[in-house]
Amino acid sequence: MIRLEALTKVFPSSHAGAASVNHVSFDVADGETCVLLGPSGCGKTTTLRMINRLVTPTSGKVFIAGRDTDVIDPVELRRTIGYVIQQIGLFPNMTVAQNIGVVPRLLKWDAARMRRRAEELLAMLALEPAEFMDRYPNELSGGQAQRVGVARALAADPPVLLMDEPFGAVDPVNREVIQDEFLRMQKSLRKTVLFVSHDIDEAVKMADRIAIFRLGRLEQYAAPDELLARPANEFVAGFVGSDRTLKRLRRIHVADVMSTERATCAPSGVPTVRASDDLRRVASLFLEHGTDTLDCVDADGRVIGCITRAAVAGRLATAGAQEPL
Amino acid sequence: MTSGTVPQRSLLPFVVLGAIAALILFALVASGMWTDMLRYRKDVVYLTKQHLFLVGVSGSLAIISGIGIGIWLSRPWMTRYAEATIQAVNMATAIPTLGKLALMMALLGIGALPAIVGLWIATLLPIIRNTYVGIRAVPEHLIDAAHGMGMSSGAILRRVELPNALFVMFAGVRTAMAVNVGTAPIAFLIGGGGLGELIFTGIDLQEFGMMLAGAIPTALLAVAVDFMFGQAQYWLVPRGVNPLRNS
Question: B9 touching A, CB under 8 A?
Fold first, then answer.
């Protein structure tokens, strides 16, 4: 678990001692992805950089797995924390394999093990190892470079991953693809991830919990569904947008709201849905076909449940219910 | 961009150089100058050794100290003084090398020592400047990523800053060595010896054979030194940051 306790940073140059980060406290459970969200200059990046001590806190504490990071040598600490930045920061003088091997080399792994690890990670990130191992960063596309950046952060299998707008420089189409890949990977790796973003859609998609910042203060810390259903104040409501109910639909799935009566309930001619579909598809079908009911089918096309407009409304009325992962 | 092999380099420059050399050789032999020149063979061997000593000692001292000073100026704690120092270095570069040698003679007398010190200073300046500029040009986010991954400052310098600055640093060394080799004949004027002895004496006596016996080895040395550092630049700078190799 990562625990932030009254974490505060006042930069010497800031006027009138205004704090860039002002008494921020929250916990991130092991294996969860926490997105730090807010407009630029809100302190989210500074908060992230205090966790690996690239920025030294003015006051307050960070505990990782119960250990006070204050008493660990910062260089040692950082080798146990994966770090991904928006500009990617691959070293242009090193090949892909050498880039991935940076932290393993600092940890004195032998060459064969480093190479095996690089191959394994590239394969996991859908890059053919034989083709990419010995390329230089200037021979990669933006999306490929970003995948290598993630591979490099994962190289020494750190339990914690800090990501500063990691997909911000990737074009929108590739960003969706990389986000999906990352989510799929995270399902099996279960890293504790802190992820800075200024994009509410990305946050809703990636986060188990969202921390919304404004002017160095934590405005709300909640699961995406709760944040969207019950914004704590005007600022949060404004930031998440007036279509926040539509945004909630992404994180709720058919399986969460269907009743399991095994008889067809939808009018004929209306497409069916699957248990793993999210409610955006359900809402689209409701609107498109003017119906209030849909059939949910399994992989063989057998009806396994029914979903009604009333059930969806009921689910939206209960905010922050436990979401299946 | 994706080719993993070294691109084929053109042979044209070598052909052109060879042709010019052959032409000059032919002219020398035809005019009888070649036999004149051969009379100075022993002097040429002796003075070439002296010349190489001047270039070798001042050049290697300049490379070692210039890179060292450049790195030192690029460190964060030097930021406050670095720009001013580089300005001073730029101004010092503007002083003609002959002036620098004369100055050294005034300070250190005549002989090989003032010549080596003068050549060292003239060679030092472009190396300091390019080392400093090359390191400062390494993007901030690379340094940030390196720190974030737990690299020590020493490791960042060795594995990130220097390799990425290396191409620019080599350009500085090539410029500096061209200055060095080009200035070395003047060392004769302050008693430093070297091939300048044949060149300047040849001019004074209107003995073109003698002059060429000094001038041709000097020119060959300049070409050889530049070729050597050019090859080193081509092969030692990592392919990912070497504009010569990723066309």
Answer: no
